[in-house]
Amino acid sequence: MNRHLAHAVPAQGGPSFPGAIPDSIRASALMQKGGFDVLAGLLDEPCREQMLSEAVRSYATAQESAVAVSDREEYRGGAPARRFLSAPGGDVQDASYHAAWMLGFLREVTGGAPVTPSGSRGTYTYYARASDHLAIHRDVETCDLAVVTCLYNGPHAASASSVPATAGNGGVLCLYPSRMLEPLSAIRRDPATGTIGVRLLPGQTIVMFGGIVPHAVLPIGDHQVRIVSVLCYRIEARGLPVARIAHALSAHRS
Ligand SMILES: [Fe+2]
After folding, report:
1. Phi and psi of 145, rounded to 5°?
2. Which residues surround the ion ligand 1 when the cut-off is CB under 5 Å?
3. Which CATH architecture best describes the domain 3-154+168-253?
């Protein structure tokens, strides 16, 4: 049984862009929680262990993503500053990615519009070197909805009820649900306002409107290793795909 972990629903703030976000998504259970939710047990323990084994095997082929300075993208995608390794998923991850139960669950919590995998395969991301990180961004237009599961957080694997003493804020996922309608430059100028930090522990999954809610991964600490499974989905909502939100926002602002 999935267990929803409580988090504060943020106050709605910032400018209003009526019509920019489809009504079904605005009214969805996920948006009512601030555009994201943290779940324990979405993937059961055997599945997580198999996925971790697959991720460890894939590490040998992982490629580096490295961008020193974020570009000027204001809404979605672009080239945020980042440093990490990633590798394509495999058969184990594929099974969850395309599972009918997963698609049904995601459709239910995101307002009822069809949810489809963005591609044939997800990825494994490795924050495995000191200062590996991902700066403030919204996800690319093919990734309206992100499902990120922590597979490992070391050097000492933490249980879901404990916090790794060595981690500090390293690897914490910072989300800005109350600033979802602000341009990225405004959030980067003032990253402390409205941030909600989520320390995703092994076995926990965050489901988020990654194309709407700005977010970042803080640099990991010395000797820290985090391995996560990343699945991306598209949502087609009432004739206005979330992929077009950036354009709607741009039009509103011009
Ligand atoms: Fe992201």
Report:
1. -130, 125
2. 139, 210
3. Sandwich (2.60)
